Amino acid sequence: MLTENKQVSVLFVDVCDSTSLLQHSDPEDSRNYLGKTLNHLAEAVGTYGGTVSQLLGDGLVALFGAPVAQEDHALRACLAALKMQRAIIPGHEMQGVASPMLRIGINSGEVLVGVVGQYGWSHYGADGKTIHLASRLEKLAAPGGILISAATQRLVAQQIDTRPVGTRSVRGLDDPVELHEVLVATESSAAAPMTRKQRWAPLVGRDESLRTLARDLDAVRTGTMRTIGLCGDAGIGKSRLITDWISALASQGIEVCVAQAKSYASARAYSTAADLIASLAGLPQASVTDARSVQAVAAQWPPDGAAHLAAVNDLLGLAAPDEAWLSLNPVQRRRRIGEALLWLVRRRAQAGMFVLVLEDVFLADRESRRLFEALLPKLQGLPILVCVSYRPDFEHQWRQVSWFAERAIEPLRDGEMLRLARALLGDDLSVLGVMNELVARADGNPFFLEQLVITMIDDGSLEGTPGAYRLQRPPGELRAPGSIAAVIGARVDRLPEAAKSALEAAAILGDPITRELIAAMQAVDLGRSEELLGLCVASGLLAGQDQARGRLEQHAFAFRHALVRDVVLGALTRARLKALHRQAFLALHARPGATEADVAPALAYHAFKGEEWEQAARFTVKSLARAISRSANQEALQLFEKGLQAAHRVEDTSIARALELALRLEAIGAMLALGQIDEIFSNMERAEAIAVQLNDQRARAAVATETAVFLWMRGRFEQGLRHASRGLEAARLAQRRHMMMAAHQTRLMHLHALGRYAEAATEGRVLLSDFGPELSVHCVQPGWAAIPIINLYAFHASTLWRLGDNAAGHAFCAKAYEILANIDHPYSRLLIDTVQAQIWIESRELDRAETLMRTGVQQCMTHNVPTMLSVCTGVLGSALARNGKAAEAATMLEKGFADRIYQAAGPYGRTFMRVSLGVAYRKLDRLDDAIAIGRKAVEEAAEEYGHQTEALYEFAETLRQVGDLAGAEMHFRRTAEAAERLGMPHYQRQATAALVDWRKDGFAA
Questions:
Q1: Which letter does DSSP use for residue 427 in this model?
Q2: H or E segment and range at residue 747
Q3: Is 256 exposed, middle or buried (0-12, 13-18, 19+ CB in 10 A)?
């Protein structure tokens, strides 16, 4: 028997003061006394489907909900406790010893159950804090009392009569515990408890179902018997619908008879039939045994039904059976009970239209179900509407008959669930955020939604009253509540062991689930795999292709509800989880296409959970690349941390180092996109140390190139160019063409930043001519934030444009957009967008540049690309300032400086922003501000000689507008000289023209 986690109720019972009671008895009498007591206690446990886990000398420990899960484990435990306390144990008074007084404690929650063995013996037992609290409660209980925890009371509220006894300090627990006492003396505690469920939310989304039931009732008014089957998953709202419908019928004066099958009574023959007959006979409950009730039933029994009184007496336990009844064999008794049932129904129908409701018929015992199935065809021609409720996996014999119709109770739609959530929680602003999360988690199931809300109330996340709650603190992870886990766990445990194992494998895989993967994990053929999954579908736990809300491929399956998967996973021990994840990894790895990037995250995840550390690290490297290629950079860094954990657990040191190096080089692309300068530096230091330890030329090439990229971000372009050149040389020695391509790209970026545009253009042409195959792979390379070909096109287009070839710049931008039409990579698109916008600004196509950069700024925030935000903001500011929107530009750029958005991009973005803000201030006649920011842009451009040339020109224009003619002339001359040296014809022409105008108009004077 596997060890697993289960939601259970634990009952501890002890005989009070047994030592004092037996102090004058000999050992044999003492043994008989305690033996009869324990037999009585064990019988009560067995009556309600519990399991005796341990005998404790003068008491026992019982589990309800294990080894087979039970939806109503708390109710069963309380009913068993009541049976223990109320019964009189025979034989004690004859021995001169008082009847024993019992103390009982019950607690509900999650435990670890399985076969426990030590010191040569074993038993089926449980462990966990749930057990320990139940034991403490038993010791706190008064003699003859039943003490239960708040967790148990919540599960039996409105079903068992209890009273609060306040909070008590419990040894071993930090916080006081809320306690309740079960009222033993009241008759109602064990009387039809399932009929008194709490209703604290309105009926939502069932108007059409109520209208359908009304039409069915209209058909019955004509004298036609109909049977309606309300079919739906657990918690979908069948009982709630029936409750509201019955209330409406009562208000119309229509007679209704209701009975409900109980899971805890399903092992007792005719238990559901007894409840139904009691209801038809007008008795308050099926367990009435006092003399007055017997006399009342006998006195009121109609003479024409005298032949049926014996069957009713026996079934309800109203009186001892007579000799005639005892002489009947079982088949004869069943026939007589069936006749009595039919007579009672017909008699009730004589007064007019009659509604008979049997809830949860799937829980009825076998004999009762056979009686009911035989009864229905005999009701033809009577004005009776029979309504039964059941779950989708219930098999019955009525589907093809003309007088039966099934009404599916579907999950509520999102809008309806939101209405229900609002009714439960209220309209306080604090709960609106969590409301959508709860609705998504409940996935159309109203009971699940209610229980999730109750869980948040219990853990203190919500405070207030029903319909008026406030969120006190974030709820954290929304785990499946114990009430839901019990409902789902009971269905799981009804599966055959092999099907349950397949369901556990499916829970590990997640949606979609294929028969091929389950077959591989379970080591069975495809036919057997499909058979096992089919059993899970029949049980309402999985959905097949025809049942799933979304589209599934052929032979694929999905969980019927997300919480089903959560509950199945929650029941697994760590050892079982590890084994299943390892099986999932092996199954996925053996499939065709296992090396593809899209499969890498799943393989990395299962390898990590299965503690296959080397494989986990290897596939995390691929997962990192995949995440960066989609601009999911935060996700990439989370994967990076997981990958490092896996690599550090690899036993072979050299393999561990190689994997760590691969992870660190790959992660730089995400750090680069997010502007994590300090993290890049420390990462590169560690990577360089590992490369030296491994004496790996390829690693050294990669580290040198990545160091160059880091230095580019820090604005140290001369130093970075030297590192890029060393990386290129190392890549040549290692004969790694993709590394050579990366080194050339890095050289291009540094030359462009230094304003050495002619050399940068040469570098770009080398890349285009010599590295076509490497550039044809349109994905992000290790350590890069952009797709290589897009990075090349962006820097090459910018270089050619600055060299005066606008047409070529436009052409390379167009080529980039052609590639990006089929690839969704925000960082790469933003890179080319900024170049295209600058070309448009220079050619005075300001509206196009403005529109493009407004989108770019928004995309930076939507896709979390902070390194491009300052550049996009700077270029947008330039377009706005020149397009008559200087005030908007100034406000946006000032906010950008206040928020320090430039920190993620290094000096590049800051220079763009300063130049654009200077232009905006000049347009607004804020000339002092324009001079201050313009001077700073010139002075702090440092090694960005091309950008410094642009800053010089704009600063000169500002000085001219101020009237500082000498300063303006000097800066125009510096601009012209720098533009001529760097090969920037646009600024050379602009500065030269300004100087010509200067001389022509006599400004020198």
A1: S
A2: helix 737-753
A3: middle
Contact 580, 573 (CB under 8 A): no
102: nearest Cα among 189, 184, 10, 191? 184
Q: Which residue has the higher pLDDT, 188 or 185?
A: 185
CA atoms of 692 and 685, how far apart (whole Å): 11
Collapsed DSSP state (helix, strand, coil) of residue 978: helix
Strands 146-149 and 102-118: parallel
Q: Tokens 């009762």 label which residue?
A: 368
For Cα atoms 599, 602, 606, give the angle at the middle one, nearest 5 degrees.
140
Q: Where are the alpha helices (DSSP H) in 803-865?
A: 806-820, 826-842, 846-862
The full 3-state SS of 139-160, as one line of letters, equals HHCCCCCEEEEHHHHHHHCCCC
**Assigned token pair, 529:** 């795999």
C-alpha separations of 68 from 6, 154, 487 in Å: 9, 22, 12
pLDDT for res 1001: 54
Question: Cα-flanking dihedrals φ and ψ of residue 560, to 5°?
Answer: -60, -35
Band of the pLDDT at 191, cuts 50, 70, 90? very low
Average pLDDT over every residue of 763-778: 92
**Three-class SS state of 390:** strand
Q: E strands of 328-465, at which residues?
A: 354-359, 384-390, 404-408, 462-465
3-state SS string for 628-671: HHCCCHHHHHHHHHHHHHHHHCCCCHHHHHHHHHHHHHHHHHHH
CA distances from 895 to 99, 158, 900, 920, 926 (A): 83, 59, 8, 14, 17
Distance CA 215, CA 407 (A): 12
112 forms beta bridges with 5, 127
Entry pTM: 0.70
Q: Provide the b/e sequence for 989-998 (b: ≥16 CB within 10 Å).
A: ebbbebbeeb
The C-alpha atoms of residue 217 and residue 659 are separated, in whole angstroms, by 71
Three-state SS for 302-363 is: CHHHHHHHHHHHHHHCCCCCCHHHHCCCHHHHHHHHHHHHHHHHHHHHCCCCEEEEEECHHH
pLDDT, tens digit, for every residue of 801-846? 999 999 999 999 999 999 999 988 999 999 999 999 999 999 999 9
The closest alpha carbon to 489, from 507, 515, 467, 469, belongs to 507
By the 8 A CB rule, do 719 and 711 touch? yes
Chain segment 579-590, per-residue pLDDT in tens? 999 999 999 999
- Centroid of chain to Cα 182: 37
Whose CA is closest to 192, among 256, 264, 298, 138?
264
* Beta carbons of 438 and 426 less than 8 angstroms apart: no
510: exposed, middle or buried (C-beta count within 10 Å: 0-12, 13-18, 19+)?
middle
- Token match 């785990």: residue? 479
CA distance 537 to 529: 12
- How many CB atoms neighbour CB 35 within 10 A? 10
- Give the helix/strand (H/E) hosting 55: strand 51-55
Mean pLDDT for the stretch of residues 250-273: 87
pLDDT at 740: 93
CA distance 185 to 84: 13
- Mark out the alpha helices in 160-202 (DSSP H runs): none
**Cross-strand pairs, 179:** 149, 166
Q: Is the pLDDT of residue 294 over 80?
A: no
Rg (CA), the chain: 40
On the question of pLDDT at 193 being above 50, the answer is: no
